[in-house]
Amino acid sequence: MVEVSGPTDEALLGGLQRAAFGYFLQAVNPANGLIADNSRANVPVSIAVVGFALSSYAVAVEHGWLARADAVERSLAALRFFRDSDQSGGPGATGYKGFYYHFLDLHTGLRVWRSELSMIDTALLIAGALTASMYFDANTPDEIELRELVDMLYRRIDWRWAQGGGETLRQGWKPECGFLHYGWEGYNEAIVLYVLALGSPSHPLEGACYRSWTATYQWENLYGYDFLYGGPLFVHQYSHAWIDFRGIRDRFMREKRCDYFENSRRATLVQREYAQRNPNEFAGYDEHCWGLTACDGPSDELPDVTGEPRRLFGYAARRLHRCRLRRTSPSMPRVTCFCAIPRCCPSHATPAASIQVLRPPIIAPGYRLATSGSTRASWS
Hints:
Blueprint: H1 9-26, E1 28-29, E2 34-35, E3 45-46, H2 47-63, H3 68-84, E4 95-96, E5 99-101, E6 103-104, E7 117-118, H4 119-135, H5 141-156, E8 172-174, E9 178-179, H6 191-198, H7 209-214, E10 219-222, E11 225-228, H8 251-256, H9 260-277, E12 294-295, E13 316-317, H10 340-344, H11 351-357
Antiparallel strand pairs: 1-2, 3-6, 4-5, 5-7, 7-8, 8-9, 10-11, 12-13
């Protein structure tokens, strides 16, 4: 077993932030400001990734990684594209009712993969756009145009239509079949979606839509932690990229004497505790190796290191199922991938635990690291 030393915490975080931001510079189409979903060849755009990019440009300016004028130019390219995009809702359009299809062609900006009109991914895009409009506040022609574009894009979204006649917001819509047959129910990353929809200056939600959503919550006790359950760890993180939830309580959280920031801290610690106990005896799981979330993973059908067959999922919403707290049956997949993103992101809630997993891991028997030729960057 080999222990690998590394830089100081501050230097480590700074280097990781700079490297992560570099993805947006490498994966962009400068003609329209759109960002590829991952680093594989010929992949489409995920509109949520564009939202993260718009937020990151402001961070990059603050750190001196990007000139302000360059950041504004990149932001304007994307915002102008969405302003002028085809909003007819047709199978080959870009969006409808102010929402956008989940995946778009990097060059044309038109729908690909028969993807859904995505309410949550549109919300993540708009959250990034609003971040840009708040940061770029100078009285210059370009920055004035940027703020006007964001205001127009936000106002164009018809959130009431997205309820589809139901009590909660729908997850998506397709021109081929209409609204998908499920809504945003149970706690998940959609809290930023509801905040934007409730605060809309043009089409705010009406009635008890938000209360109907929180009525589907599941309050659990796992490993001694009382918290609002959500499977993949990213659902406890994404909204926190834009909203500081410390001390903010809705009716549900007031009754639980908690808030969403504290809830994310507990959810993170539950995941860490699960990996440390490792009830299914997976190789490599411990207090420094944890973080089940939606991410890319290997998809090859290869023999396990023990000679047993194993099932690999490629992209999947890897999550902490409540049934995994016990040793699972033989039919349970024996290999699960961890993603560095969920362990890094909750450093705002669990800094001590999160910083340790960013260190080079201890290499132990049965624990495999991806080689440089097999790693890929992915955002969604």
